Amino acid sequence: MVVGVAVRGVVALAAVGSLALTGCVSGADRASGGAEVDPAALQGELVFWDSTVLDTEAPVVRDLIGSFEEAYPDVSVRYENVPEEKLAERFAKAVQADSVPDVVRVPTTTTATLAKQGYLENLSGSPLDTPDEFLPAAFASAQVDDRLMGVPQTGEPVIMASSAGTMERAGVGVPSSWDEVAQQAESYSEPDAYPLQAPASGLEVLPFVYSTGGGMLDTAASRVIINDGPSVAGFEAGVALATAGALRPAAKTESEQEALKAFQDGKVGSIFTTPARLRTLFGSDPFRDGQGLLVGAPPAAGDDGPATAYLGYNVSVTSASQSPDASQALVAALTSASGQQELATRAGLVPTRGEVYEADEVSGDPMMSGYLAAMQAAQPTPMIARVQSLYGPIGQEWLNMVDGRTSPRTGANAIVRLWLPYLPEGYRD
Asked: What is the pLDDT of residue 370?
């Protein structure tokens, strides 16, 4: 399913160092209660660190906080906007200064790192623990070792964005399978034009891997599976498209933004990207304000349908909070269906709750329908500490595979070797 496009940003954060919170109550000791209480029973001052984009998204969040304070008159919230690229450093300094916030918006790639270091409250068994209300990949990407360490607020799946104008000139539609992508190569007769941009990052390679039933890690079994047969088959599917002339090559020196520029210039019909990166094209033609764009899940390898990678954002209570019940109530407000609807309709953020897509204002928006297709096809973020360090080696070895310097099997084994410094103790392939 492919329809119009929406926007949002994601940047993987660096891991926070191994610092200890002093004087904090364990999250496991306060695992339940807090979200469904009498407003009159809650009081205190909370500090909330938000990582949404300051100019375009944060105003919506601040409005949600204003409504929360009206509903809970004895609770005040001190709002701080902390840019994603500074969040890890700020958090580490806050730990040292004993000034950790009560509630924080955390990327899925950082959630496990903070949870493993004991910085986040375990919300398992609390009123916030409602897995049936969320899309599966989003909820799984808030769980670490079967403990709920945050509540999904917004999603950031890898999507396939397509240019209506470029495809119209080629006389093709949006491909739904890798075979269709290969078949379309002959239709792109303009010089240096291709059906699909070759991935420029490891994250964007994952739709190939997931489409054939592969993956990065089996966290339940502490196993590496990036070099298993199904994963290698995914790499082979991508290399086959390159061999067929269906992928525009991505040089080692080409950035994701340069790849997007090629898409903007009509050199490719489609590209794997994230809503945040796609948004950088919205200020100029031919995609001004999202016009002329189609978005959905990447193509499928077979009858099982498409699959893609998931990143997103969780809102977590820190284990340093002295007002855990009020903190959980704030998390509930910021991640509620009504809150997510506001974020979707006013800021274009991707909901993680299935029911939000049924609301009239959201269901009637073709952009959100496209994001839903990608969210439904998404596989969870592997919830281990330092997971953000695993994407780079995938991109590095992918370039070696697609350039013919190594085979998919050899490249997959090389990825595992590059991962070894970052994997938790006990992992095996």
From this structure: 93
